[in-house]
Amino acid sequence: MVALSELHTRVFHSLENQIAVIDCTGLIVDVNMAWREFGRHNGLAAPQDCVGSNYLQTLECAAETGDESATQALQGMRSVLCGHCPHYEFEYPCHSPHEQRWFIMRICPLYGAREQGYFVVTHLNITQRRLAENAVARMAELDPLTGLGNRRVFHQFLTRELRRCLRLQQPLGLLLLDLDHFKTYNDLHGHAAGDQCLQQVAQVLSEHARRPEDLAVRLGGDEFALAYGATSLAQLTQIAQSILRDIRALELLCRKGLCVSASIGMVSLVPDDDTTEGQLYERADQALYRAKAAGRDGLSV
Ligand SMILES: Nc1nc2c(ncn2[C@@H]2O[C@H](COP(=O)(O)OP(=O)(O)OP(=O)(O)O)[C@@H](O)[C@H]2O)c(=O)[nH]1
Fold first, then answer.
1. Of the four listed, 27, 79, 202, 225, which is most buried by Cβ atoms within 10 Å?
2. Ligand 1: residues whose CB is within 6 Å?
3. How many C-beta neighbours within 10 Å does residue 10 have?
4. Shared domain check, 148 and 214
5. Last residue within a domain, chosen from 104, 132, 160
6. Residues 122, 48: one domain?
């Protein structure tokens, strides 16, 4: 039968968390196996040098080089060591040259030893959780069929670009695009082929939105929107004409002599303090209505 203290030591070294016990000056008095192993694999202090080094000083050196995570860890750690906070934890990136990694650091008093001034610092690798969260966040911004951004992203982008163009007094361009005869195409070829048609159109649109200040999204159904920062009406017209040409060139036949085409409403203006995202959208939508009414496969302002 293993003695209880021996059992506790074994548990300490079996845990996946990297654990260090420090005193109130930051001096490391003990570390577990995971802490030593992490140091060994990441070119940090030699395992035998962990105990006896000062964790606060290590963080101070890193913070002085501008390491934001070290600065934050340092502040949190000091607040616990001096008794201002009962415990502190925060998540931070710690990428290696080979992989992206995130950790959560926690510091709290050592159980039953607060008076003696001992504290436990733990680091836990949360990379799998963070990657899953990032993937979910990306999915929440994408239209699953076409891979373009969705309506939510569009609003965020437009709000940001509107502010930027107002500040720089540059024109902000917006195109609203609705496919023509798409229902007929769907009816003739089936829904799956209709989906492929939307994907082909999306490809054309993303080829026309390549700069960081451009965005192409699918608003829903056969409706798309494109926003262009710092783009005049003349430039916008050229882009819209090129899009119409490229969609025609797809030759998506929906009945004899009739192909899927697009109607585009556009607006470009230099925002003033009163310009809203809603006004911009409304103007492009009315222009789209005029393009449809004018016979489709065309554009209107
Ligand atoms: N395949 C497919 N069809 C869709 C999807 N979303 C909407 N639709 C169809 O898209 C069609 C859109 O209708 P309309 O805008 O009236 O079609 P349209 O023939 O282009 O009409 P006009 O704009 O007046 O030329 C409807 O038949 C919808 O069922 C989708 O994700 N996949």
1. 225
2. 145, 178-184, 186, 191, 194-195, 198, 221-222
3. 12
4. yes
5. 132
6. yes
